[in-house]
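Students often ask why inverse folding is considered easier than folding. One informal answer: many sequences map to the same fold, so there is more than one right answer. In these notes we will look at a single instance of the problem. The structure comes first.
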């Protein structure tokens, strides 16, 4: 079975492929679909729940704090991908890590369904741990299905896989968002848990099509290494708990303290991890330039996600209070806007996949650095539109704008996303040395974590600068980054070596 998974899917017998791709892709596709349903369903109502459900104080203060908490929590979830990648690489293998992660995520969502602050934060913690185990490793398994195949075929496979993310993300806000906003917040969280349960069932039933992919850890840890990691994890956990208890006992505790610590961690962790990889004696001389190239892509992705992931915080709050959502006398939920981007991805993903393959056949496909540069120009353009929307809302008698402003923003963001996210996923598996593939995938997701960690701070500027100035500022920064990456593309391509 393992050898059959490395053949060109186009050469497999009819009925044994998934849209021309390995049959195992169907298992990973459906598992990711339901896992993303649970994640994006919860995420669609999280900031609204924080504003309308649990936080006290003036509305403006609640919105700023909710946006910070939202950004930092997203950062924590993606930071968990690093230890999750290590567990797969050194202890369990990707196959088991994904299964255990899925079960923990389901438990987290069901915990959120229980009213109460303790259950709420416990549920968020479980989801973060489970996602750290599942997210980087299911993507690494997709890469395993295309071992030995051309880069364009792998890119097409990751674009197809990316569609599964967006099918789940499209459906989730419509279901979870409606139930959460109009019936009961905790019912919405519980329905997200049902989606994750379906993901686990699908994964177990379809495991036979994955062959040997992900069954064994790439570099099993020695008993001493296991003990060392356990000691360090226990030490840092004890330090964190002690600091939190001291803050509470002294009567100085504020949720902002946690936000600030986690935001700093989101910046420090990737720096430390890159240094550790470069100092690792197992990193060969041929692989070192590729990791240097990956640093460029990582830094650019961080800035991209700083801007893009504000859609779940500031843009959701803009939809909630500054957008006219009334259609035929009925006001649709603000969380439904979170379905716009994935719907657009579903439409555009097969088009992009086809275009990349056909351009590659003609030797005219733009290199990955140019795709990243284009992504930055587009994400900057989306916030230029958002700046105009903010000015229009401020000038309006009602303080609101039509739905078409946000729809335009999401369209331009989606075009940028298609140039960066699936391409970056595929690139990570190609640049990563085999001994570090799980950890490099973790670093790719850590770019999202770092971007969201920074959002824990930068979104506060919105209340100071106002919408028009704030969004225009980010548009200029993103455009400058895009031009810089374009200028450096030749140097980056040289560092990539034989990776295309």
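Output (designed amino acids):
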């Amino acid at each position: 079975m393992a050898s059959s998974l490395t053949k060109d899917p186009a050469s497999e017998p009819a009925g044994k492929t998934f849209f021309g791709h390995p049959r195992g892709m169907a298992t990973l596709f459906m598992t990711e679909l339901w896992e993303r349903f649970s994640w994006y369903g919860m995420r669609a109502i999280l900031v609204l729940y924080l504003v309308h459900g649990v936080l006290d104080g003036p509305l403006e203060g609640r919105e700023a704090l909710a946006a910070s908490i939202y950004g930092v929590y997203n950062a924590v979830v993606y930071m968990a991908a690093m230890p999750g990648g290590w567990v797969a690489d050194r202890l369990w293998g990707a196959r088991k890590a994904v299964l255990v992660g899925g079960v923990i995520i389901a438990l987290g969502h069901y915990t959120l369904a229980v009213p109460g602050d303790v259950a709420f934060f416990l549920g968020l913690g479980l989801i973060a741990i489970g996602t750290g185990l599942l997210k980087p490793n299911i993507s690494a398994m997709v890469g395993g299905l295309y071992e030995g195949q051309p880069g364009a075929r792998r890119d097409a496979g990751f674009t197809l896989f990316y569609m599964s993310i967006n099918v789940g993300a499209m459906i989730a806000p419509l279901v979870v968002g409606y139930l959460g906003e109009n019936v009961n917040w905790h019912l919405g969280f519980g329905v997200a848990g049902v989606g994750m349960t379906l993901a686990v069932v699908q994964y177990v039933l379809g495991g036979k099509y994955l062959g040997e992919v992900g069954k064994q850890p790439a570099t099993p840890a020695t008993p001493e290494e296991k003990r060392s990691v356990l000691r360090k994890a226990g030490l840092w956990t004890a330090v964190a708990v002690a600091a939190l208890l001291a803050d509470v006992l002294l009567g100085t505790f504020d949720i902002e303290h946690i936000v600030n610590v986690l935001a700093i961690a989101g910046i420090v962790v990737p720096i430390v991890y890159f240094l550790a990889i470069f100092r690792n004696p197992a990193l060969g001389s041929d692989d070192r330039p590729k990791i240097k190239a990956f640093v460029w892509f990582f830094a650019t992705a961080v800035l991209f996600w700083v801007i893009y992931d504000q859609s779940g915080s500031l843009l959701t709050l803009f939809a909630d209070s500054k957008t006219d959502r009334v259609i035929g006398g009925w006001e649709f939920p603000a969380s439904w806007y979170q379905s716009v981007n994935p719907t657009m991805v579903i439409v555009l993903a097969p088009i992009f996949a086809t275009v990349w393959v056909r351009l590659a056949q003609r030797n005219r496909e733009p290199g990955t650095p140019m795709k990243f540069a284009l992504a930055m120009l587009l994400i900057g353009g989306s916030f230029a539109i958002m700046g105009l929307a903010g000015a229009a809302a401020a000038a309006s008698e009602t303080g609101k704008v039509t739905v078409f402003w946000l729809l335009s923003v999401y369209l331009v963001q989606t075009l940028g996303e298609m140039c960066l996210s699936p391409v970056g996923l595929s690139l990570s598996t190609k640049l990563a040395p085999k001994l570090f593939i799980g950890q490099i995938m973790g670093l790719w997701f850590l770019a999202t974590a770092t971007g969201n960690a920074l959002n824990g701070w930068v979104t506060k500027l919105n209340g100071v600068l106002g919408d028009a100035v704030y969004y225009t500022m980010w548009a200029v920064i993103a455009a400058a980054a895009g031009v810089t990456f374009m200028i450096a593309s030749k140097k980056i391509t040289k560092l990539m070596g034989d990776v295309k």
